[in-house]
TrEMBL record:
Record bears the keyword Nucleotide-binding: yes
Family, similarity comment: Belongs to the ribonucleoside diphosphate reductase large chain family.
UniProt entry keywords in alphabetical sequence: Allosteric enzyme, ATP-binding, Deoxyribonucleotide synthesis, Disulfide bond, Nucleotide-binding, Oxidoreductase
Protein name as catalogued: Ribonucleoside-diphosphate reductase
Disulfide bond in keyword set: yes
Any Pfam family matching the protein: Ribonuc_red_lgN
Coiled-coil stretches noted in the UniProt entry, renumbered to this chain: none
Source organism (scientific name): Periweissella beninensis
Ribonucleotide reductase large subunit domain ranges (all copies): 559-581
Function: Provides the precursors necessary for DNA synthesis. Catalyzes the biosynthesis of deoxyribonucleotides from the corresponding ribonucleotides.
E.C. number: 1.17.4.1
GO molecular function, one term: ribonucleoside-diphosphate reductase activity, thioredoxin disulfide as acceptor
Record PROSITE patterns: RIBORED_LARGE (PS00089)
Length: 722
């Protein structure tokens, strides 16, 4: 029976019974029955069988499924050894959703999509072989991390590794335009090219002169950023990866740009079709000065990027608005436009209520915490990538006079529960993950966008994140957001920070190479390590001490030695950590998404052509039910506290999502007492300011659970959602 003609299957019905209580109990056993039926009725009869491993690899290489150059780096004796190890681990999916998602989205299939050519073990094996690049010891270590689901490569990496007909391995990109037509054209071309190969693209348009600005002395000649946004949206629609999915991009604009209100208006439901952008995401670059002006409920001035660049001889993105605000206001040569800061704050909240946008990048905070030389000016499609950029200049021949640095980043996630429960050597596991990520960076040569290639070659940047926090806390009967959960989060991410530094330092020693401008970083002068050397970073409660009993927690002496090693040998990776949103890959790992609370104990997913599939939260049982409170019933300050606790150890950003009900639960927020229970712009203003004060560098998305039981502003980024 072909995958095209499946009928009379029972697993969907069995899975649906999970959502039907029996004797006031969740029928979790029905999910296991659905899992067994799925393998019996779908996987086993539709997987092509081979006599042995040699025949399988010969077939896949001959028929152009696997990359022979990857396989040829190993003896076949070793490949058999690798498979023996993997088979001994006896991997089993833990839920129907996990198996279904893997075979629907990740498993290699025949060209006509009628049969499977690999199992989860096969995909892990080829990932291990590919990322180890011929290193047998590393291949075994990678296989160990992935088969026990301690490490999960990002979707592009996990899906494409080892295939002969593959897309790129990199998850996301960040580019910017300068204020000239050549640069705008280059950004549009870059968006086409990067969307074609599968990445989500973040683009900053803050350098562009505002609508009505002069061009060559002609007043009111400039069209502003909105027409460029429309061109970019059309570019992503056109470059849709052979029709497989819509291209994905986000445009960022500084809140002090004169086009800010027109920019926000492009996402309003009642916007004129001439300006409305439907598929392009929006993000705001927010300096500290905006929070100050909004707090004072005073007017704010918006500054012409064209005039600012002429006066400072620097593109608008690279001006410190907070530091220069008074000078900018006082300069008569700079055109300025006055609006009320509190009104703009309210407009931002209105749009977040309506659409979930815009994303928020607290740019001054990102730069204050940035340990490397240079300036962060923008972010990616999911707001977690925060890396330095430099502008390019392009002449009329479309040749770079100055080749700047833009950003590409490959991602991966630690499964927190599996890491804590099965890792025998925390540091060795992290080093293995860092080597896999570094291989992707080293092997990425995107000549189609030279500024992206230069940035990658200079930085060797990666983004190791994590998922499954809520599941791990519930499993250990810890309430999300309480003191123990913050204690655990603090120690876990401090350890990831430490061991990624150790790994990057070791790679730098081996290769005798550091990232560009390492000598100008806070790593090189030792100042980065001061807070770890001076403070005692150990668990506070006995419960958290017990959870870390089998893992070495770095001491002040460990940090001191690391600081000395880094000063002597350097670091290979300019950036190491970032918390991305995790989508379908979380299900395969039986992990809760990213660091967020769950949405439902039994999650309902609408799958194309299939209908609804139900997914019980990982580790859900009668004992853990009290610890699984929905994100929509959770005080978002608790979520912000978790993210802020982790953020102090993370060199890049985090995709922090806010979850709110259209009608907020009674008593959840004290400022609602005596007022309407409906979510208002004031609620979002308060929460954004709380996140800013707690040290969160970004806010990704606002999701609203409406009174008619639907979700507004739900966005799963298929490129960065790993």
């Amino acid at each position: 029976m072909s995958l095209h003609t499946l009928n009379d299957v029972t697993y969907f019905d069995l899975n649906n019974q999970v959502n039907i209580p029996k004797n006031n109990q969740i029928q979790l056993e029905k999910d296991q029955a659905a899992l067994a039926a799925f393998f019996k009725e779908n996987v086993e009869p539709n997987t092509i069988k081979f006599k042995n491993l040699q025949e399988r690899f010969s077939y896949l290489i001959k028929n152009d499924f696997l990359d022979a150059t990857c396989i040829d780096k190993y003896s076949f004796t070793f490949i058999e050894k690798l498979y023996t190890f993997l088979n001994e681990q006896n991997f089993k999916f833990k839920s129907f959703m996990a198996a279904y998602k893997f075979y629907a989205q990740y498993a290699l299939k025949t060209d006509d999509k009628s049969a499977y050519l690999e199992s989860y073990t096969d995909r892990v094996a080829i990932n291990a072989l590919y990322f180890a690049n011929g290193d047998e010891k590393l291949a075994l270590r990678l296989a160990d991390e992935m088969i026990h689901q301690r490490y999960q490569p990002a979707t592009p990496s996990f899906l494409n590794a080892g295939k002969s007909r593959r897309g790129e391995l990199v998850s996301c990109f960040v580019i910017q335009a300068t204020d000239d037509m050549n640069s705008i054209g280059r950004v549009i071309n870059s968006a086409l090219q990067l969307s074609r190969i599968g990445g989500g693209v973040g683009m900053n348009l803050s350098n562009l002169r505002e609508a009505g600005a002069p061009i060559k002395g002609i007043v009111n000649a400039a069209s502003g950023v909105v027409p460029v946004m429309k061109l970019l949206e059309d570019s992503f629609t056109y470059s849709n990866q052979l029709g497989q999915r819509q291209g994905a991009g986000v445009v960022y604009l500084n809140v002090f740009h004169p086009d800010i209100m027109n920019f926000l208006a492009t996402k309003k439901e009642n916007a004129d079709e001439k300006i409305r952008v439907k598929t392009l995401s929006l993000g705001l670059i927010i300096p500290d000065k905006f929070y100050e002006l909004a707090k004072e409920n005073t007017d704010m001035y918006l500054f012409s990027p064209y005039d600012v660049e002429r006066e400072y001889n620097t593109p608008f993105n690279y001006i410190d608005i907070t530091a220069e605000y008074t000078n900018l206001v006082a300069n008569p040569k700079i055109r300025k436009y006055k609006i009320n800061a509190r009104n703009l704050e309210t407009e931002i909240s209105k749009l977040q209520q309506e659409s979930g946008y815009p994303y928020i990048i607290n740019i001054d905070m990102a730069n204050r915490e940035n340990p490397v030389a240079g300036k962060i000016v923008s972010s990616n499609l999911c707001s977690e990538i925060l890396q330095i950029q430099t502008p390019s200049t392009i002449n009329d021949k479309q040749i770079y006079d100055t080749l700047g640095n833009d950003v590409s980043c490959n991602l991966g996630s630690i499964n927190i529960a599996n890491m804590m429960d099965s890792a025998t050597d925390f540091g060795k596991s992290i080093e293995t993950m860092m080597r896999a990520l570094t291989f992707v960076s080293d092997s990425t040569k995107l000549d189609i966008v030279p500024s992206i290639r230069k940035g990658n070659d200079d930085a060797h940047a990666v983004g190791l994140g994590a998922m499954g926090l809520h599941g791990f806390l519930a499993k250990n009967k810890i309430m999300y957001g309480d003191a123990d959960s913050l204690d655990f989060t603090n120690i876990f991410f401090m350890m990831v920070n430490y061991y990624t530094l150790v790994a990057s330092n070791r790679i730098a020693q081996e290769r005798k190479q550091s990232f560009a401008d390492f000598k100008h970083s806070k790593y090189a002068d030792g100042s980065y390590f001061k807070k770890y050397i001076d403070q005692n970073w150990q668990p506070k409660s006995n419960k958290i001490k017990e959870l870390f009993a089998n893992h070495h927690i770095p001491t002040s002496a460990d940090w001191q030695k690391l600081a000395a090693d880094v000063a002597q040998y350097g670091l290979y990776n300019r950036n190491r950590m970032a918390i991305a949103p995790t989508g379908s890959i979380s299900y395969i790992n039986d992990a809760t998404s990213s660091l967020h609370p769950i949405v439902n104990r039994i999650e309902e997913r609408q799958e194309k052509k299939i209908g609804k599939i139900y997914y019980p939260a990982p580790y859900l049982s009668n004992d853990t039910i009290p610890y699984y409170q929905s994100a929509y019933d959770t005080d978002m300050r608790k979520v912000i506290d978790i993210y802020a606790t982790a953020q102090q150890h993370i060199d890049q950003g985090m995709a922090l999502t806010l979850f709110l009900r259209a009608t907020l639960p009674t008593g959840l927020y004290e400022w609602k007492n005596g007022h309407t229970p409906k979510m208002t712009t004031r609620d979002l203003n308060i929460l954004r300011n709380y996140a800013y004060k707690k040290g969160c560098k970004s806010i990704y998305y606002v999701r609203t659970f409406t009174d008619d039981n639907t979700e507004a502003g739900v966005n799963e980024c298929v490129s960065c959602s790993i």
